[in-house]
Structures
1.
Amino acid sequence: MTYPIPIPRERDRRPRLLDLFSCAGGAGMGYHQAGFDVTGVDIHPQPNYPFTHHVADAIAYLHAHGREYDAVHASPPCQHYSPLNAYNHKTYPDLIAPVRDALNAIGLPYVIENVETAAPELRQPALLCGPMFGLRVYRHRLFETNWSLTAPAHPGHTATCVRNGYLPTPDRPFMTITGGRHSRAWQNTACDAMGMPWIKVPPGGDIPRGIREVCEAIPPAYTHWIGTHLHAHIATSVEAAA
Ligand SMILES: C[S@@+](CC[C@H](N)C(=O)[O-])C[C@H]1O[C@@H](n2cnc3c(N)ncnc32)[C@H](O)[C@@H]1O
């Protein structure tokens, strides 16, 4: 597939990736490691985001600035797709379809990420899982793309997960990383398991919001894999357009 915008515009620069719904940059870091120049956008300030960052509504920013980039990643909040909503009677915005519409209007290669319970909303998503990348978390996430993405082979789930909030043990070496009032030791261990050292608690210090950030994140290894293939896809599109 080729795209209406000639990308990259200067052939010797790093391609630019727009990281929508960025939080503290779990996804963004993987794209950076894959060779992208990453810019994040989130509705809330993200002081721990490691790259250029803008505070804005994701769809509004995409409409206003999307064409300044070569590719877009979007991680709309997943709460709308949680089965727990049937019990807690809360309502959350359903952003996957509006985000897809905005991405199609821009016409760049895109990635839309979400949780497994959002599968009915996503078009032929690839599933990624921690052991595909040597991680000690299962953390299934789905990735819809408008270009061809294949997941690595999916290893069996043979290791046991420790309960959320507890540190791993030799018998239960995998972590479950979801919200809660967890210890600093747990936060740092979770950051190691996810590959997010920049939001670890420094000795004697604190990282505000770090627990929420690690619990919301995609492991950078997932987007490193995606970004490596996206980079190749963009290079092929540029060659085809030349
Ligand atoms: C699941 S987190 C994204 C995690 C991120 N991809 C990562 O790997 O670290 C979703 C984020 O969307 C942000 N958000 C919610 N509504 C938004 C909106 N309308 N525009 C931009 N960001 C929004 C939240 O503040 C939150 O940080």
2.
Amino acid sequence: MILYSKSPSETIRFGKQIGRFLQRGDVVALMGELGAGKTQFIKGLTQGVGVRRSAYVSSPSFTLINEYKGKIPFYHIDLYRLEEEKDAEELGLEEYFYGEGITAIEWADRILSLLPGELLRVNIHYTGKQTRSIELVAKGKRYEELMNRLRISDCGFRNLVTSDY
Ligand SMILES: Nc1ncnc2c1ncn2[C@@H]1O[C@H](COP(=O)(O)OP(=O)(O)OP(=O)(O)O)[C@@H](O)[C@H]1O
Ligand SMILES: [Mg+2]
């Protein structure tokens, strides 16, 4: 499924619509170049899940883990400063991936071998100064169901989706 965004606020809105369908244990892996809009999208996810930031945690490898509190805890992990995949081992990411909260990871392509087998992948690309393509790829049954729920939901997604495969 590919969504086309024409503004930062539209990207946040897409994130919010998807965030409403997230559940405990879900993992969202974001990929896309510098300034693509990953953080904007995650801002939307937190709004959709209904959480507020409670803490910034900076690890020795400078990976930022933003913790949000709400009915379901939400963790935003930003791996931009991670130099080597093996540096991620000390972060104890499994606790997030296989825990009770929702986890969204920026620069997820830096830890490909550590990612869980099932997740929602979000690839964001520049298509212009203010425009982006946001590709959603479901890996595993839970996320295929999530995509189906998005498609049949009333949030207007169907009209916004211009490509589907
Ligand atoms: N359609 C759009 N969607 C999202 N962001 C947009 C869009 N158009 C312009 N922008 C701008 O692009 C930038 C995206 O920043 P953001 O921090 O979300 O990117 P990022 O992918 O998280 O980057 P980084 O890799 O540095 O963390 C913002 O300055 C935003 O205003
Ligand atoms: Mg970012």
